[in-house]
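Thread: Newbie trying to understand structure tokens

Hi all, I'm a second-year student working on a class project, and my supervisor (Dr. K.) asked me to get a predicted structure for one chain before our next meeting. I've only ever worked with sequences, so writing a 3D structure as a token string is new to me. If someone could post the tokens and maybe explain what I'm looking at, I'd be very grateful. Here's the chain:
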Amino acid sequence: MSWTSGTLLALFVVLFALSLSREVDSAMVPSRAKEPQGLLKRIFMKESDASNFFRRRSRREVKSQDEINAEQRQVLAADERRREFHEEKRHEFESYAEEENDEQNERTRESTEQWREFHYDGLYPPHEYNRHTI
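---
Reply by user tm_fold:
Sure, no problem. This is what the structure looks like when written as tokens:
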């Protein structure tokens, strides 16, 4: 039981030391932020507008052109990711199939060569029908 109390005491000491350091104050978000400028003003909306955004817009209300464009960009980006994923999978399968085909051809060639070496009778071409009987 003493090791848990020691661990808690060490944790509280570390938290106290961190709360006194200057880095904590510099990492805090200031309560009064400046008004956003330029592009940030268009991206972020005021808190009052943000809280009423979903209440204001009903399901039947027509979307703005910006919303339609943003949704279309998301759909196109998802389609592009899906296309790249399937293209990569197809490439992997084609590589696998080509490698398997090459290995099968090599095994077939080796077994054919072994068969020919085993059945070779010194005549050319080494076929049964080419032998002359006396």
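A couple of things are worth pointing out once you decode it. The CA atoms of residues 22 and 28 lie 10 Å apart. The two ends are 105 Å apart (CA to CA). Feel free to ask follow-ups in this thread.
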